[in-house]
Amino acid sequence: MYQANPFYLAAAVGGGAGVLTGLYIFFRRWRQQRLVEDTPAARIRSAPQGYVRLSGRAQPADGKALRAPLTGRSCVWWTYRIQQRERDGRAAILWRHNDTGTSDQPFLLIDQSDHCVVHPDGAEVEPSDRKVWYGNSADEIPPALWGGFCFGFGQRYRYIEAILKQDAQLSVLGELRAETGSMTNSIDDEAAALLSRWKQNQPVLLARFDANHDGRIDAAEWEAARAAALAEARQNRLQQVPEQRVCVLAKPRGNEPFLIAALSPGQLARTERWRAMAGLALTLLSLVVTCVAIAHVRGAAAA
Q: How many distinct structural domains can be found in the chain?
């Protein structure tokens, strides 16, 4: 009875997976390259709301830079991974995540015309700097002296940290929208706050709303107090000075990519193009491996 060579079966399965992975990488990166090239550049002051491409310098939102957790470097955004070396049943080396983290603090993007707030949640980030180094502890992190030139022979842990530096020149593709700060409270919330303050001064509350002078506020009188609070909250809202609208650049509500890159638009487009070509190369190579493996399996079966 014929038994297929497990090596060629594994090669066929792995090759098929490589074809699918390569196609996914190719189409995803090719689409992102086209978006980078086809989305017109805009200035922050005159940019329309919606999906835009902006460029500018990165600055902390509150004037105080963040500190990267592993190296303490000054930045506006960071992400890190601590991985532990393990071996599987075939003695192959695997790196499994031990600890990860990514900052979600907004930062400013500033160009010559204005500034906007960037919310990096959900973004694909091309960092200003990335370091990889090795050590033997998940708690006592050694200094990143060699910036990734050490290959970690005999070390149990790998540390990876990437940052966006303060003042880095960024290209950002995302959804631009205008938001306001404190106008989110509803009229009902403001009326409830007024009622709470009035209840703390019972003599004044009784003098104003105790219509039958029985020394307490009954249900009908409380409804009158609530109506007065609603009217006063509406009047206060009308008298408020309109707040300046803040431009926010964030993850699109649709399926467009949200890209933050410490690269010029041209460099970002070239990077996406090379990655698309790498995906295509992986597809072709995996297809060749799959075809060769299937041919060996079929040939052995025919024999």
A: 1
